[in-house]
Amino acid sequence: MATVLYITAHPLDPQSSYSLAVGKEFIEAYREANPRDEVVHLDLYKENIPQFDADVLRGWEKLRSGSSFDQLTDAEKSKVACLEAIVDQFVAADKYVYVSPMWNFTIPPVLKAYTDATSIPGKTFRYTENGPEGLLTGKKVLHIQASGSVYSEGPLAPLEMGYSYLNKVLQFYGIQSIEAIFVEGTALKSQEQAPAIKEKAIAHAKEVAKCF
Question: Is 167 annotated as a binding residue?
Fold first, then answer.
C-alpha cells in the first residue's frame, strides 16, 4: 500500500478551476485503480503553513545552538513544531500530486510556502562533502498546472516558472520520476474551445492515473 499526498493550491473549487477539475478526475481514477492506497488531501488554502519569520529562524537557531525545545518561546515552539510535522508527513509519503494554477508565471504563494516547509536539510536533502544530496529517491510526482496561455512550449516557454521551479526543487530532493499535465491556452480560445481543452486534459489525467 502506498501513501499519496494530493496537494492542491487553488482557493476555488473544481467547478471554477481548470487545475482542480483535472486534479479531481485524476485522483478519482487513481483511487479506482489503486483501492488499497491511502490518499491524503492537503488543501493548502486550509492548512496552517508557517512562514519563515523571526520566530522560526530564531527557534531553529536556538535548537542548533544546543537549547532544548522547552526553552523556545511559545510562538517559536508552535511554528517550529508545525513545520516539523509538515516535512515529516511529506517525507513519509510515497507519491505526490501537485495541483495548481500558474499565477504571474509561477506557483501561488501558498504552494511556495509549502515548498519552503518541505525543503529542510536532513529531511528531504542533506549536505555532503561532495555537495547536496537528495534523500527522497524512489518516489513519484505528478504536477497538474493550468494557465490561460501556453507556456509548456512555444514563444512563452522561457516565462514558465511554475512547473519548472517545482521540478527543480523535487529533483533536488532526489526525485527523478516527475510527470506534468498542462491545462493551458484556455484564455486564448473561444468559450466553445476552452471546455474541450479541459476535457482533453481530463482524458490524459485518467490515463496517467492507471499507471502512476
Answer: no
Residue 104 annotated in ligand binding = yes
Which CATH superfamily groups domain 3-209?
A: Flavodoxin domain (3.40.50.360)
73, 79 in Cβ contact below 8 A?
A: no
pTM for the full predicted model: 0.96
Q: Is there a binding annotation on residue 125? A: no
Q: What span, in angstroms and rounded, lies between the C-alpha atoms of 36 and 1?
A: 6
Contact assessment for residue 162 and residue 105, using Cβ atoms and an 8 Å cutoff: yes
Residues 145-164: pLDDT tens digits? 999 999 999 999 999 999 99
- 105 assigned to a ligand binding site: yes
User: What dihedral angle (degrees, nearest 10) is formed by the CA atoms of 19, 22, 25, 28?
Assistant: -50
C-alpha cell at 56: 522560526
So where are the chain's domains? 3-209
